[in-house]
Specification:
about 50% helix; alpha/beta; about 10% strand; seven-stranded parallel β-sheet
C-alpha cells in the first residue's frame, strides 16, 4: 500500500527536498506551502499535491488537513514532517529583541507546529502503517550561542512538545521524534556573514554600544563558520532514513558539527561543557 506524508514548509530548502525525494520514492506527498508561493520548482518532474498552508492560520491548516483526508479516503496519514520554521527574525541580544518579531517567530516555529499536529492527528490515528511524526528542532539547543535567544527558546519548546507527545501517542502506536540539525546551506542561512552584521545595524545605539565590542566577535565568528554549512541533500537523506527505523529515538543529531555533542555532554559536566563551548567561541 502506498504510504502518505504531509511535509510543511515545502516551498524551498529542506522541505522541498524531502517532499520531492519522497514523491520520487513512490510516497503520496502533500506539500504544505504558503499561499502565493511559486511551486514550479517543487512540482517539476514529480507527482505530489500542493496544500496551501500558513501554519500560523489554524483555519487554513484545518482546511488543508481536510483536503488531505478527502484525498486519502479514510486510509489515514502515515507520516507528518514538521519542517516549517524561521530563524532570521527576532535576532540580536535579548535586551534588544523586538517582541513583535519574537511573538511572530513563536507563532511559526511553535504554535504553528501545534496547529499542524492538532489538525492531522485524527488522520494519523487512522493509519495502519507505523505512523510517525518528525519535528524539526535545532542543534542550537545544545549550543545556544548569543544573539539567537528567541530562536533557541522556540526549538527548546519543540523538544518539550516532542517529548510529551512521545508519551501521549505511544499507546496508539504513533511514534514521534525531533531532529537537531546543524547549520544547513539553504536560503535560511544564505549570506551568513552579512546576516550577522545586520544584527548590529538594527540594534538600538545605546544597547549596541554596550554589547558590540564584547559580543560581535562571537557573532562574526559564527557567521564565518556558517559558510561551511551542511549539504541539505546529505541532511535530508539522513532524516528520511528514519521513516523505516523500527523504533524512533527521542531525538536525532544530523550534521557534521553536531553529531558528537551528545557524547561530549554525557562525558562532561554541564559546567565543563559550557566552559568548552565558551573557549571555542572565545566567550569570556
Amino acid at each position: 500500500m502506498t504510504r502518505s506524508v504531509v511535509v510543511t514548509g515545502a516551498a524551498m530548502g529542506m522541505g522541498m527536498l524531502m517532499a520531492r525525494k519522497l514523491a520520487s520514492r513512490g510516497w503520496r506527498v502533500f506539500a504544505g506551502v504558503l499561499p502565493g508561493v511559486d511551486t514550479r520548482e517543487l512540482t517539476n518532474g514529480v507527482e505530489l499535491t500542493v496544500i496551501r498552508q500558513d501554519v500560523t492560520d489554524a483555519a487554513m491548516v484545518r482546511a488543508g488537513a481536510s483536503q488531505v483526508a478527502d484525498a486519502l479516503g479514510g486510509q489515514g496519514l502515515d507520516l507528518l514532517i514538521n519542517n516549517a520554521g524561521v530563524a532570521n527574525i527576532a535576532t540580536g541580544v535579548l535586551e534588544a529583541v523586538d517582541m513583535t518579531e519574537a511573538r511572530r517567530l513563536f507563532d511559526i516555529n511553535v504554535f504553528g507546529m501545534v496547529n499542524v499536529i492538532q489538525a492531522h492527528l485524527p488522520l494519523m490515528h487512522q493509519s495502519r502503517q507505523s505512523p510517525r511524526i518528525i519535528n524539526f528542532a535545532s542543534g542550537a539547543v545544545r549550543v545556544p550561542l548569543p544573539c539567537s535567544a528567541i530562536y533557541n527558546m522556540s526549538k527548546y519548546a519543540v523538544e518539550g512538545m516532542t517529548n510529551t507527545l512521545r508519551y501521549e501517542l505511544a499507546p496508539f502506536g504513533i511514534q514521534v521524534t525531533s531532529i537537531e540539525p546543524g547549520a544547513v546551506a539553504t536560503g535560511m542561512t544564505a549570506n551568513p556573514v552579512e546576516g550577522t552584521a545586520r544584527i548590529w545595524e538594527r540594534t538600538p545605539p545605546e544597547i549596541r554600544s554596550r554589547y558590540e565590542s564584547k559580543i560581535r566577535p562571537i557573532t562574526d565568528d559564527l557567521g564565518r563558520r556558517l559558510l561551511d554549512s551542511n549539504d541539505p541533500d546529505v541532511i535530508t537523506n539522513e532524516v528520511l532514513a528514519l521513516v523505516d527505523v523500527p523504533t524512533l529515538k527521542p531525538r536525532y543529531m544530523v550534521g557534521k558539527e553536531v553529531k558528537m555533542l551528545p557524547l561530549m555532554q554525557r562525558l562532561l559536566s554541564e559546567s565543563a561543557f559550557e566552559r568548552l563551548i565558551a573557549k571555542q567561541f572565545n566567550i569570556q
